[in-house]
Amino acid sequence: MRKLIMKMSVSIDGFVAGTDGQKDWVFKTGDEESMAWSVDQIQQAGLIIMGRKSFETMAPYWPAATGPFAAPMNEIPKAVFSKSGFKSSDYMKTVTEEQSPAVASWAEARVFDGDLAKEISKLKAEPGKPIVAIGGAGFMQNLIATGLIDEYQLAIHPVVLGSGLPIFTGLKIPQYLKLDEVKVFPKGVVVHSYHA
Fold first, then answer.
1. Number of C-alpha atoms within 13 angstroms, CB side, residue 162?
2. In angstroms, what is the C-alpha Rg of the chain?
3. Dihedral angle of Cα 32, 37, 43, 48, to the nearest 10 degrees
4. Which CA distances in Å does 135 have to 18, 49, 180?
5. Cα–Cα distance for residue pair 145/28, rounded to 1 Å
6. Orientation of helix 116-125 relative to helix 137-146, angle to 10°
7. Neighbours of 18 (CB within 10 A)
8. Residue 160 has what DSSP assignment?
9. Structure-derived torsion over alpha carbons of residues 4, 137, 192, 112, reported in degrees to the nearest 10
10. pLDDT on residue 100
């Protein structure tokens, strides 16, 4: 059974994005070392999962992107979770006609529209390297509620947003986690890794 890792950037006051989804603060407060660590974590994934909204934001961007995140984001298989009957291949045709390997990796994303907990359990039962969950607040809230996350990698950025989108909200019961590791980076990003 492979493990499920949630990887998120979080403000000091617990938000993963501003009220309108802004995430520019992640790049303003990061540094080369924290970026290298983040790229290394993504490269270890056998599957990247996200919600539909994140997929629609990322799919047009990454195939043409350069930089350290581009290769893993375009090479690692992806899965998207949607309740709306979304088809990644149809969506990618509207983005570009060019079928580069990078575009194909997004167009071939597996789409799941059933019960989130059941679908995640099936994915975890497959052989392979870890599953890494990235994306928006709504998807992460639902994923956390399943209780199926094995490891939380929370990159706490030195910024206070005052308001925004949280992910640790609406839980029916508390989830007690064990701290595995703390990494401190030069510009103040502190990564807390917990396991369930």
1. 1
2. 16
3. -100
4. 14, 8, 23
5. 30
6. 70
7. 16
8. -
9. 10
10. 79
What is the token pair recorded at 162? 């005052």
Angle of helix 88-95 relative to helix 52-61, nearest 10 degrees?
A: 40
DSSP reduced 3-state for 98: coil
Q: What is the mean pLDDT of each run of 10 residues along the chain (196 residues)?
A: 96 95 92 95 96 91 91 95 71 57 86 94 97 95 95 98 94 92 97 96
Do the beta carbons of residue 187 and residue 29 sit within 8 Å? yes
CATH superfamily of the 4-195 domain: Dihydrofolate Reductase, subunit A (3.40.430.10)
Q: What is the pLDDT of residue 95?
A: 53
Write the DSSP symbol of residue 5: E
Structure tokens, 74: 């375009």
> Which amino acid is it at 74?
N
Sign of the CA dihedral with 116 first, then 121, 124, and 130 last: positive
Domain boundaries, the chain: 4-195
Regarding beta strands 190-195 and 178-184, do their DSSP bridges make them parallel or antiparallel, or are they unpaired? antiparallel
**Given this model, what pLDDT does residue 117 score?**
96
